[in-house]
Amino acid sequence: MDQQQQRIFNIEKIYVKDLSLEIPDAPLVFLEPETPKIDMQMHIDDKNIKESMYEVVLTVTITAKIEDKTLFLVEAQQAGVFQIINIEAAEMLPILNIVCPNVIFPYIRETVSDIVTRAGFPPVILSPVNFEALFNEGKQKFMEQNGSSQPTNTTKQ
């Protein structure tokens, strides 16, 4: 296979794009004896930033509450820049919505755990995510709603 036809997938950069932490009722929240309910939402965005270079951003929002009181809110955007060459168009959506998030996820997992711990709370360890299942669910929903085979980015709530 010559150089022009060789399929290339390179991780160029992994970085924290945005990170925010809110503790609205500090320091009183540290006196709460109850264990908070943790809610996680996740979203994937991708864009072509120049020829053969793509940015994929995995956004995770973590909310910890006891009843209606928010203990903390974390929003983290972990991003990656990927070089993708000689990949057919039909394969791009799965690569951008499954492969790239699988590369980024361990980093955002560490970022979230670290910021929550530094805020004075027990670490929040994100459970593994099956991005392939999320992609297929999003594709199925899109097809049901639009009668087309082109899914949008995946969202987990």
Secondary-structure map with pairings?
Layout: E1 8-22, E2 37-50, E3 53-66, E4 69-85, H1 89-118, H2 131-146, E5 155-156
Antiparallel strand pairs: 1-4, 2-3, 2-5, 3-4
Strand element count: 5
Uncertain runs: none
Task: Note the overall shape.
Answer: elongated
> Rg to the nearest angstrom?
18 Å
The CATH topology is what? Answer: Bacterial Protein-export protein SecB
Would you kindly provide a written description of the structure presented here, covering whatever features stand out?
This protein has 157 residues and is of the alpha+beta class. Helices cover 29% and strands 39% of the residues. Strands 1-4-3-2-5 form a 5-stranded antiparallel beta sheet.
Write a concise synopsis of the structure shown.
The chain is of the alpha+beta class and 157 residues long.
Task: Supply database-style keywords.
single chain, Bacterial Protein-export protein SecB, five-stranded antiparallel sheet, elongated, alpha+beta, 2 helices, 39% strand, 157 residues, 5 strands
